[in-house]
Design brief:
heterodimer, A: mainly alpha, about 0% strand, B: alpha+beta, 8-stranded mixed beta barrel, two-stranded antiparallel sheet, about 25% helix
Chain lengths: ~160, ~180
């Protein structure tokens, strides 16, 4: 009986492992931080400086615009409207493909359109049947190999 | 052993459910044919070329005499529809009408005989309005992600299933068979 139980457990673990690979992952070591070479560091600093400069410029533009408004001067927006500073409160467009939105969407069956893929007709049924048959046969073989123990179990 | 028994029972139950659904579809089709109500049950989609019918309801009958295939085609290619029989892909025209009519089924059930399909085979479709004879003109095997279905101006019947037919696991390819009406 113990053998059968052990075999069933091994089979279960084998089947489960294929489905839940991520759940039996051991400790994942943190990737070692490799110090960049001097050139990379210099480049990073350069980029940081660029961003600082950009931030400063944006601030300058806002300041100029606000100053123009306060002085009741009409800024010449006709020639270059795109240069007007974008207010910081501009709303960021919401992503529609968030997990919540996706889960709220009803399950759709594929519909025909030009260039569509062939419908997914793949099933796991043959695999399930084969796996079941193999496991069942393995179990039967394991039982037959130890008939004495099985008899004792029946008597007990 | 217990797990194996469960797996076998599960797959057996799935096959049994498919057989029951198939019988139900056949019965329903026979009723529809007798009452000549098949055409009345469908409504043409406004502004489109496709047809609207309730998912799972029988829309046609498909025969391939050489392969002994005789199935009732149901609307839609969802899991429930494909359990009952080959599914007519929603949005495609009905067999015999101008355009591409797409019918799909599982390789391990209704379209198992499609593995033996060859160019030149005769396919027969029946809808409420009539019977059309087709001849298979092209058979292709494409990857699952490939754009395999296209609109056409003339009547085309496209049969699709998974490929290879005998394959354990999720089959990676698709069998695309196209047929044109015989004159």
């Amino acid at each position: 009986m113990k053998r059968i139980t052990r075999a069933a457990l091994v089979a279960l673990a084998g089947l489960g492992a294929a489905r839940a690979e991520g759940q039996i992952t051991t400790v994942v070591a943190q990737p070692k931080r490799v110090e960049a070479n001097a050139q990379a560091v210099a480049r990073r600093q350069e980029v940081a400086q660029d961003s600082v400069a950009r931030v400063t410029l944006t601030g300058m533009k806002q300041w100029v615009d606000s100053a123009a408004q306060s002085l009741a001067l009409r800024p010449d927006t006709g020639t270059a409207p795109s240069e007007t500073a974008v207010p910081a409160t501009t709303a960021v467009p919401q992503r529609t493909d968030t997990p919540t939105a996706a889960s709220a969407r009803p399950a759709q069956t594929p519909e025909f359109r030009d260039g569509a893929r062939a419908p997914d007709t793949a099933t796991q049924l043959p695999m399930l049947a084969l796996g079941g048959a193999v496991l069942l046969l393995t179990g039967l073989v394991l039982r037959r190999r130890d008939p004495a123990r099985a008899r004792v179990r029946v008597r007990g | 052993m217990t797990v194996g028994a469960f797996a076998l029972v599960g797959s057996g139950a799935s096959v049994a459910r498919a057989a029951l659904a198939r019988d139900a579809a056949r019965t329903r089709w026979a009723e529809l044919e007798a009452q000549r109500a098949a055409t009345g049950a469908r409504a043409k989609v406004a502004g489109g070329t496709g047809w609207a019918a309730a998912p799972g309801s029988p829309v046609a009958r498909l025969l391939i005499p050489r392969l002994g295939l005789d199935e009732v085609v149901v609307e839609g290619v969802g899991d429930d529809a494909l359990r009952a029989g080959p599914g007519h892909m929603t949005g495609s025209v009905l067999p015999g009408e101008p355009g591409n009519s797409v019918i799909s089924a599982h390789r391990d059930r209704h379209f198992r005989p499609l593995g033996g399909l060859v160019v030149g085979d005769t396919v027969i479709t029946e809808i409420g309005t009539g019977r059309v004879r087709w001849v298979v003109s092209r058979i292709r095997v494409m990857t699952a992600d490939a754009p395999a279905l296209h609109t056409t101006a003339t009547p085309v019947l496209t049969l699709t299933t998974c490929w290879p037919i005998r394959y354990f696991g999720s089959a990676p390819d698709r069998l695309i068979a196209e047929a044109v009406p015989t004159l």
